[in-house]
Amino acid sequence: MTAPLPPEDLWVFGYGSLIWRPGFAFVERAGARLHGYHRALCIYSHVHRGTPEVPGLVLGLDRGGICRGVAFRVAAEQAEETIDYLRAREQATAVYLERRLALRLDDGRRLTALTYIADRNHEQYAGRLPEEAVLALVRQGKGVSGENPDYVRRTHEHLHEMGIHDPLLAHLVAELDRTSGPAAG
């Protein structure tokens, strides 16, 4: 008889707020690339950065392209707890589809990671909106996790620190700063 295989560590891919606020314990963090999806402000936020009456706009992984982000390795004994946490956080309105997708870490390792992609059939899927509409939604959004402009600024800041340039986020931050001044702290 062979002994059962030990449980495996869990990898999680973050492309937005998970980069700067993962909310779970991890044993390794590494830059990563996901092929076949791109980061997009394509989700109407009804909980974290808005409400159904006054929605904000948050990031989702949408089809096509490549997304650079962060892969987190979670110890096997914390995998179930981490998945439960992520489901509660990311699936508050079931706007994302939970998937395990192939990633390539910046050091060349290939692995499969848990991530959440935009459900194009969900009523909160915004798709590609004109920049003026995106800016208006971001300006108005406020939910249980805070104000939408703070979410955009923090995501932009952390992507910039990682050497990732997101033209839309950079434009939005410049517009937000131009019209309301830089965020404090």
UniProtKB/TrEMBL annotation:
Keywords: Lyase. It comes from the Bacteria. Its EC number is 4.3.2.7. It is an enzyme of class 4 (lyase). InterPro entries: ChaC (IPR006840), GGCT-like (IPR013024), GGCT-like_sf (IPR036568). The keyword Lyase applies. This is glutathione-specific gamma-glutamylcyclotransferase. It comes from Bosea eneae.
